[in-house]
Amino acid sequence: MNADELTQLTKYFRKTFDNGSLAVKARPKITDSAELYLGEEFLGIVTKIEDEGEVSYDLSMSILDFDLEEL
C-alpha cells in the first residue's frame, strides 16, 4: 500500500471508531497489506484486495482467549 492509502485508511478508522489513537502503518517488505494499531498496541492486518478493477480493504483481527478473561 502506498502512503496515500495508509493516510486514507487511518482517517477512515479514526472517524469510524471515533478514536484518534488508531493508525495504519506499512509492513516491512510487504506491499499488499498494512498493520492497524491503537497507540502502540497491534490490533490487526488490513489487506488490500483488487478484483476486476475494484479495490477493497479487509481487516483481520485475532482475539486471544486470555484477553477475554481480563474483562
Write structural notes for this entry.
The protein is of the alpha+beta class and 71 residues long. It has one domain (3-69). 27% of the residues lie in helices and 46% in strands. It is built from 2 helices and 4 strands, in the order αββββα. It has helices at 3-16, 65-69, and strands spanning 22-27, 30-38, 41-51, 54-60. A 4-stranded antiparallel β-sheet has the order 1-2-3-4. β2 and β3 (41-51) form a beta hairpin.
Beta percentage is: over 45%
Structural class: alpha+beta
The geometry reads as globular
Sheet having the most strands = 4 strands, antiparallel
- Rounded to the nearest angstrom, the distance between the terminal CA atoms is 35 Å
Helix content: 25-40%
Number of domains: 1
Quick structural overview:
The chain has helices at residues 3-16, 65-69, and strands spanning 22-27, 30-38, 41-51, 54-60. The protein starts with a helix and ends with a helix.
